[in-house]
C-alpha cells in the first residue's frame, strides 16, 4: 500500500454505485430488496459468485449481514453509533465537499448512466479476484487472483509481476464501494490490510477522523486542514454534519452530561507526535463555543499557551511534545454553561531541564524568554542568548522551523495576564527561569587533594544569588557542602565534583518543577468554580502515549506503566464490563475473547515482588546501584512470563502494546529525586517570595514517610516519597475519577516518523493500531449491544409514545409494547433482567420520534398557554381599565371640588377687592365732587354777596384748594398729551409700513400689467396671423375659382366636342370648390369667435387681478388654465388647417388644375407659413 497499492477510485465512482446493491445470501437481503423496490422501483441485484470451497461465501454472508444491519440504522442517542447512516438516508456530496465533510456512503439515487452497472457479472468477477498480499517488506498490496489450484493461487501484482503463493497468505479485500467509509464497523472484511487501506484512503483525502465503533481514530495530518472554525462548530451543534470529528465526540459528551446528569471524560491517547495536544485544544474550543457566555471559557483556552510553554519541548519525534500529562476538568452550570475548570498534571519530565539529547530542546519557555524578553527585563535578569547557557546548548538545537519564539513569548505574557497572574508574579517567574539557566553555567574548582570542590564566584554564581534573593556565600555552601546529623552532632561534608554537579542539577530541576506546579495552582485559582459548582463536568485527559525508543529509561518506564493502567480502563469499559453485564443480565450472547493486561499490571504493582516495590526497596539502600537493582529484578521475576532479564542493566517487559527493553541506568537516582535539606533551607531563607513558597511545599510533601527502611545518607529525610510512589498514587486517583465518568476515547495516530504531510507508513500505523486495540474494539462492538437502558428508564422516557394507555402496566410490559409498536426487529435488541440492550443505531428511531412528539406537545402547549395568557391579559386589562376609570373619576372629582372651592374663594376675594377699590374710587369721586361743589357754591356766594369782607375772606380761604385742583388738571393734561404723542408715533410707524407694502404691491402690479400686456400682444399677434392666413386662403380660393371658369370657356371655344361633357365637369368642379370655401369660412368664423372669447377672458382676469371686479377665484391659476386652453385650441386648429390643405391638394389633383393652380396654392401656403413665422 505504500507505493504499490492500487490506484484509489474517485469519489464519483463511489457515489455512482446503485442504491439497490445488496450482497446475496444474507438473512436480511429479501427484506431490504423489498424495501428498495417499494421506493425505487424494480432494480438489479448483484450476485457475487464464490469459489467451490464455499469459504468465501460464508464470509460474505456473515459480513453482509452486519453490513446491512449497520447500513439500515441511525442512532442519534448513543455515542457509539457515530455516523452509521443507511444508503437511503445518506446525502450525496460532490468532490468539492470532500475537504469539508467525511466521505459518505453511496447515494441511493439511480445513476445517470445506468448501463454502467448493467454487466453485474463482470463487476462480481472483478471483486472475487481481489485480495491482500503481504510483501516481504511487511507492506500490504492489493493483488488479483488469476487462478487457484488446491492450496496455491496465481496472483498478479500492480506492476504486472505474477507470483504463485499459498492461498492462506491471501487476505480478503472489501469491495470498492466500501473504500473510505467513515466507520470501520461498516467494512465487510475487518482485517489489518483493509483497516490500513481505509485509513490511508481517508488520510489522502484530508479526512483525518474515522470512527472505530465507540473510538475516534485521529491521524495527524502535519498540516492545516479545513475542518475547523465557527461554521463547523455550528454545523456539529445542529447535527447538520455527522462525519467523524472531535467536535462530534465533544458534542456527544455534552449532550450525555445534560441528559443523564453524569460526568463525562474524553481520554486522548497516542504516542509522541500523534497530535494529542492539538486534539485536546480542539475539544476545548468546542466546549468553549457551546458552553461559553460567562467569559471563563476564554481563560480556559488561554491556559494552553502557558502549559505548552512550560511543559512542552522539541523531541526527536515531535516539535511540540508534551512532557507531562494533564487532566482538565471543566465544570458546567445547570444551564449547560461553563462555570469553571481545574487542571491536574502528572509526572513532569524534570530531567529535560538539565540534559537534552542531540537534536532536541529543553522546555519552550527558556528559548522564548531569551528571544522575546523586553530590553528592561533582559537587563534586570541579565539575560543572554540561548546559545550562551550550558543547559540549552547541550543539544545544539535552538529553534524550531516555522516557530517564532519571540512572538510566542508575547502570547505567553498575554495569557498570563488573562489568568490573572500579576506583573510582579510574572517578573518573579521569569527570574526563576533565569536563575535555572544561570545555575547551569555555575562551575566548580577543586580545592584539595581529595577532589573536593567549591563554586567559582563568577557572574553566574552572583546572578543566581541575586535572582533567588540570597548571598553568594550561602549559595556556595549549599552547592559545595552537605550537612549530616550523626547522633546529636552535625557534620559538614565537602562534596566532590560529581556530587556538587548533581546537587546543582537537583536544585535546578526542583526550582523548575516547583515553578510549574505553582503556575498550575495559580491557574486553578483563576478558574475556580466556587459556589457555582454543580457537580457536572467534562474531563479532558491528555496524557503521554506508549513509548518505545532505542534506549528506554525511567521516564518511559513510568509512561508505559500509566498506559497499561489506561489500557485496562479501556478494556474494562469496552470489553470486561460490557461482557460481564451481558452475562449478568442473562441475554443471549456469544462471549468474545480479548487480550487482557491484568497480568502485566500485576508485574508492576504486585507487592512485595513487583517492579515498583523492588524499585522503591532498592532506592532506600545506601549501597544500591542500578546494576544491583537489575540483578534483583532478574532474581525475583525470572519466572514471570511478562518479564525477561537481559544482559547487564537491561530488562524487558511484555506490554499490551509490545515488548519494551529498559536500561536501568539512572533508575535509582531519578526515583529518589533527592534534594538535600541544605538546598531547601537555602530556598526558605531567600528574600524572594517564590523560593520560600517552593521550600514550604517541599517540606509539606515530606510529612508522609514511606514504610520501610529510610535512606540515611545524603539527607533523604527531606524527601521520603519516591517518584514512582507519588506517580502511582496520582495514577490511582486519576483512575478513580475516570471510573466515575462516562468515557469517550480518541486514539491519535502518527502516520509517519518524518512529521511530513501526505506520508503514510503502514508499519508505523499498524503498530499504533495494535497498541490501542482498535481491531478488537470494532470486532466486539459489531457483535455486541452498545446501547442499553433500564426497563424503568426506557418506559419513563418513551412510554408516552404508546397509542394506548399503559399506566397500570409494569415497565417491562411497557418497554416490550413500545418495541412492538415501532417494529424493531428481534435480532436488533435483547431483553435482559433489568435492561434493554440495543444494537447500534436502534435507539435513534425512538429518540427521533420522541423529539418530534415532544416538539409537537410543546407547540400545542405554547399555543394553548398563549391563548390563555391573552385571555387573562384581556380580562386583566379590562379590569384595570375599569378600576382606573373609577380611580381617575374619583381623583378628578376631588380635584374639581378643590378647583370649585378655589374659584369661589377667588371670586369672593376679587369681589371684596373690587368692592374696596370701587369704594375708594367712589369716595375720592365724592370728595372731588364736594370740593368742586364747594368751590362753585363759594364762587356763587361771593358773586352774589355784597359783603366784600366776607368775599375776600372766602376767596382767600379757597385759594390753596383751587391751586391744588389746577395742578391736578395740569398733570392730567400732560399725561394725556404724552399718551397722544406716543399713539401718534405708533400710527406714523404703521403708516410707514403700510406705505412700504403699498409700494411693493404697486411694483408687483406694474410687473403683472407688463406681463399681461406682453401676453395680450402675443395673443393679438397670433390672432392677426391666423386672420391673415384665412384671408389669404379665401383670396386664393377665389382666384382659383375664376381661373377654372376662364379655362373652361377657352376649352369650349377650342373643342366643340366638349359641350356634352361641359355641364358635368362644371357641376363636379363647383361642388368641391364650394365645399372647400365653406370649410375655410367656418375656420375663419371659429378663429374670430375664439379670439373674442380669449380676449374677453384675459381682460376679465386683468380686471380681477387689479381689483376692479370682485370674484372668488385665483387669477393666476385661471390665467395658467386659460393659457393651456389656448395652446390646446391652437394645436387643434393648426391640425385642422393642415387637413384642409391636404383635402384641397387632393381636389386640385383630381380636377387637373394644372401648374397655375399649384403655383397659386404654393404661393398661398408660403404666405401663410411666412406669416406664421413672423
From TrEMBL:
Keywords (A to Z) from UniProt: Actin-binding, ATP-binding, Calmodulin-binding, Coiled coil, Motor protein, Myosin, Nucleotide-binding, Repeat
GO biological process, alphabetically ordered: actin filament organization; actin filament-based movement
Provenance organism: Punica granatum (Pomegranate)
InterPro entries found in the cross-reference section: IQ_motif_EF-hand-BS, Kinesin_motor_dom_sf, MYO1-3_N_SH3, Myosin_head_motor_dom-like, MYSc_Myo8, P-loop_NTPase, SH3_Myosin
Keyword Coiled coil: yes
Protein name: Myosin-1
Record-linked Pfam families: IQ, Myosin_head, SH3_VIII-1_N
SMART domains to which the protein is assigned, alphabetical: IQ, MYSc
Binding-site residues for ATP, renumbered to this chain: 270-277
Domain Myosin N-terminal SH3-like: residue ranges: 126-175
Amino acid at each position: 500500500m505504500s507505493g504499490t497499492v492500487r490506484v484509489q477510485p474517485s469519489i464519483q465512482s463511489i457515489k455512482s454505485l446503485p442504491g439497490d446493491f445488496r450482497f446475496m445470501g444474507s438473512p436480511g437481503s429479501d427484506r431490504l430488496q423489498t424495501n428498495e423496490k417499494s421506493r425505487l422501483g424494480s432494480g438489479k441485484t448483484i450476485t457475487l459468485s464464490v469459489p467451490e470451497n464455499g469459504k468465501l461465501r460464508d464470509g460474505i454472508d456473515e459480513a453482509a449481514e452486519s453490513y446491512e444491519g449497520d447500513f439500515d440504522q441511525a442512532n442519534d442517542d448513543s455515542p457509539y453509533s457515530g455516523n452509521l447512516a443507511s444508503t437511503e438516508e445518506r446525502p450525496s456530496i460532490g468532490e468539492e465537499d470532500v475537504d469539508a465533510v467525511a466521505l459518505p456512503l453511496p447515494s441511493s439515487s439511480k445513476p445517470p448512466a445506468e448501463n454502467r452497472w448493467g454487466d453485474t457479472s463482470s463487476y462480481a468477477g472483478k471483486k472475487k479476484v481481489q485480495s491482500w498480499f503481504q510483501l516481504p517488506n511487511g507492506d500490504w498490496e492489493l493483488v488479483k487472483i488469476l487462478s487457484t489450484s488446491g492450496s496455491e493461487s496465481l496472483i498478479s501484482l500492480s506492476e504486472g509481476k505474477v507470483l504463485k503463493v499459498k492461498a492462506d497468505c491471501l487476505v480478503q479485500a472489501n469491495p470498492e464501494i466500501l473504500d473510505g467509509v467513515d466507520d470501520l464497523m461498516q467494512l465487510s472484511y475487518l482485517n489489518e490490510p483493509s483497516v490500513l487501506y481505509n485509513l490511508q484512503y481517508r488520510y489522502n483525502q484530508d479526512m483525518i477522523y474515522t470512527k472505530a465503533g465507540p473510538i475516534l481514530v485521529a491521524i495527524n495530518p502535519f498540516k492545516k486542514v479545513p475542518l475547523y472554525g465557527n461554521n463547523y462548530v455550528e454545523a456539529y451543534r445542529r447535527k447538520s454534519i455527522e462525519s467523524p470529528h472531535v467536535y462530534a465526540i465533544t458534542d456527544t459528551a455534552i449532550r450525555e452530561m445534560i441528559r443523564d446528569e453524569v460526568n463525562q471524560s474524553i481520554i486522548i491517547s497516542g504516542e509522541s507526535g500523534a497530535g494529542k495536544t492539538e486534539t485536546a485544544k480542539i475539544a476545548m474550543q468546542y466546549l468553549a463555543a457551546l458552553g461559553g457566555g460567562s467569559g471563563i471559557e476564554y481563560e480556559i483556552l488561554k491556559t494552553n499557551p502557558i502549559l505548552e510553554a512550560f511543559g512542552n519541548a522539541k523531541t526527536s519525534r515531535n516539535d511540540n511534545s508534551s512532557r507531562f500529562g494533564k487532566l482538565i476538568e471543566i465544570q458546567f452550570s445547570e444551564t449547560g454553561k461553563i462555570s469553571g475548570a481545574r487542571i491536574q498534571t502528572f509526572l513532569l519530565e524534570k530531567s529535560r531541564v538539565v540534559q537534552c539529547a542531540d537534536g532536541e530542546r529543553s522546555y519552550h519557555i527558556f528559548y522564548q524568554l531569551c528571544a522575546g524578553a523586553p530590553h528592561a527585563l533582559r537587563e534586570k535578569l541579565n539575560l543572554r542568548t540561548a546559545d550562551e547557557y550550558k543547559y540549552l546548548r547541550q543539544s545544539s538545537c535552538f529553534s524550531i522551523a516555522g516557530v517564532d519564539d519571540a512572538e510566542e513569548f508575547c502570547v505567553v505574557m498575554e495569557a498570563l495576564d488573562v489568568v490573572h497572574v500579576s506583573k510582579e508574579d510574572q517578573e518573579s517567574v521569569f527570574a526563576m527561569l533565569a536563575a535555572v539557566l544561570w545555575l547551569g553555567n555555575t562551575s566548580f574548582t577543586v580545592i584539595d587533594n581529595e577532589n573536593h570542590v567549591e563554586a567559582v564566584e563568577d557572574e553566574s554564581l552572583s546572578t543566581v544569588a541575586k535572582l533567588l534573593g540570597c548571598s553568594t556565600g550561602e549559595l556556595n555552601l549549599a552547592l559545595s557542602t552537605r550537612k549530616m546529623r550523626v547522633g546529636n552532632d552535625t557534620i559538614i561534608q565537602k562534596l566532590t565534583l560529581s556530587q556538587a554537579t548533581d546537587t546543582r542539577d537537583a536544585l535546578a530541576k526542583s526550582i523548575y518543577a516547583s515553578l510549574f506546579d505553582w503556575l498550575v495552582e495559580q491557574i486553578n485559582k483563576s478558574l475556580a468554580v466556587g459556589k457555582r459548582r454543580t457537580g457536572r463536568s467534562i474531563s479532558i485527559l491528555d496524557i503521554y502515549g506508549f513509548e518505545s525508543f532505542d534506549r528506554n529509561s525511567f521516564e518511559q518506564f513510568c509512561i508505559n506503566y500509566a498506559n497499561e493502567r489506561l489500557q485496562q480502563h479501556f478494556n474494562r469499559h469496552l470489553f470486561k464490563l460490557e461482557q460481564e453485564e451481558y452475562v449478568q443480565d442473562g441475554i443471549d450472547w456469544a462471549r468474545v475473547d480479548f487480550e487482557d493486561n491484568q497480568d502485566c499490571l500485576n508485574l508492576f504493582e504486585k507487592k512485595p515482588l513487583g517492579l515498583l516495590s523492588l524499585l522503591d526497596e532498592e532506592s532506600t539502600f545506601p549501597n544500591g546501584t542500578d546494576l544491583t537493582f537489575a540483578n534483583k529484578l532478574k532474581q525475583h521475576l525470572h519466572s514471570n512470563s511478562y518479564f525477561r532479564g537481559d544482559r547487564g542493566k537491561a530488562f524487558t517487559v511484555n506490554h499490551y502494546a509490545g515488548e519494551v527493553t529498559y536500561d536501568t541506568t539512572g533508575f535509582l537516582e531519578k526515583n529518589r529525586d533527592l534534594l538535600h535539606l541544605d538546598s531547601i533551607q537555602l530556598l526558605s531563607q531567600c528574600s524572594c517570595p517564590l523560593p520560600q513558597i517552593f521550600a514550604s511545599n517541599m517540606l509539606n510533601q515530606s510529612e508522609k514517610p514511606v514504610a520501610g527502611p529510610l535512606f540515611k545518607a545524603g539527607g533523604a529525610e527531606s524527601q521520603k516519597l519516591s517518584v514512582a510512589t507519588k506517580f502511582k498514587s496520582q495514577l490511582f486517583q486519576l483512575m478513580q475519577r475516570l471510573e466515575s465518568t462516562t468515557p469517550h476515547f480518541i486514539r491519535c495516530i502518527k502516520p509517519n516518523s518524518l512529521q511530513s504531510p501526505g506520508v503514510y507508513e503502514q508499519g508505523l500505523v499498524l503498530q499504533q493500531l495494535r497498541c490501542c486495540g482498535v481491531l478488537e474494539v470494532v470486532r466486539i462492538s459489531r457483535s455486541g449491544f452498545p446501547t442499553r437502558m433500564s426497563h424503568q428508564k426506557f418506559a419513563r422516557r418513551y412510554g408516552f409514545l404508546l397509542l394506548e394507555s399503559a399506566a397500570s402496566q409494569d415497565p417491562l410490559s411497557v418497554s416490550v409494547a413500545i418495541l412492538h409498536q415501532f417494529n424493531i426487529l428481534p435480532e436488533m435488541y435483547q431483553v435482559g433482567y433489568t435492561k434493554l440492550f440495543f444494537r447500534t443505531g436502534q435507539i435513534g428511531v425512538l429518540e427521533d420520534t420522541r423529539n418530534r412528539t415532544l416538539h409537537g406537545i410543546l407547540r400545542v402547549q405554547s399555543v394553548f398557554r398563549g391563548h390563555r395568557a391573552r385571555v387573562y391579559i384581556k380580562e386583566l386589562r379590562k379590569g384595570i381599565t375599569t378600576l382606573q376609570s373609577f380611580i381617575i373619576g374619583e381623583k378628578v372629582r376631588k380635584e374639581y371640588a378643590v378647583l370649585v372651592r378655589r374659584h369661589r374663594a377667588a371670586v369672593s376675594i376679587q369681589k371684596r377687592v373690587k368692592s374696596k377699590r370701587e369704594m375708594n374710587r367712589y369716595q375720592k369721586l365724592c370728595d372731588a365732587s364736594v370740593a368742586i361743589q364747594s368751590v362753585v357754591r363759594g364762587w356763587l356766594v361771593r358773586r352774589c354777596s355784597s359783603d366784600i369782607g366776607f368775599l375776600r375772606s372766602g376767596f382767600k380761604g379757597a385759594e390753596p384748594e383751587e391751586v391744588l385742583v389746577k395742578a391736578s388738571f395740569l398733570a392730567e393734561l400732560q399725561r394725556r398729551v404724552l399718551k397722544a404723542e406716543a399713539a401718534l408715533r405708533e400710527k406714523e410707524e404703521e403708516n410707514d409700513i403700510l406705505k412700504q407694502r403699498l409700494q411693493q404691491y404697486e411694483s408687483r402690479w406694474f410687473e403683472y400689467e407688463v406681463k399681461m400686456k406682453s401676453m395680450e400682444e402675443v395673443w393679438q399677434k397670433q390672432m392677426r396671423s391666423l386672420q391673415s392666413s384665412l384671408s389669404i386662403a379665401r383670396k386664393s380660393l377665389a382666384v382659383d375659382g375664376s381661373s377654372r371658369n376662364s379655362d373652361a370657356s377657352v376649352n369650349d371655344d377650342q373643342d366643340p366636342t366638349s359641350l356634352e361633357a361641359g355641364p358635368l365637369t362644371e357641376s363636379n368642379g363647383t361642388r368641391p370648390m364650394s365645399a372647400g370655401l365653406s370649410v375655410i369660412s367656418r375656420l375663419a368664423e371659429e378663429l374670430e369667435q375664439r379670439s373674442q372669447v380669449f380676449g374677453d377672458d384675459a381682460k376679465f382676469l386683468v380686471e380681477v387681478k387689479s381689483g376692479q371686479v370682485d370674484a372668488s377665484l385665483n387669477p393666476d391659476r385661471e390665467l395658467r388654465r386659460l393659457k393651456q386652453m389656448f395652446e390646446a385650441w391652437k394645436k387643434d386648429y393648426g391640425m385642422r388647417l393642415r387637413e384642409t390643405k391636404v383635402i384641397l391638394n387632393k381636389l386640385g389633383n383630381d380636377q387637373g388644375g394644372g401648374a397655375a393652380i399649384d403655383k397659386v396654392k404654393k404661393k398661398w401656403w408660403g404666405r401663410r407659413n411666412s406669416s406664421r413665422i413672423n
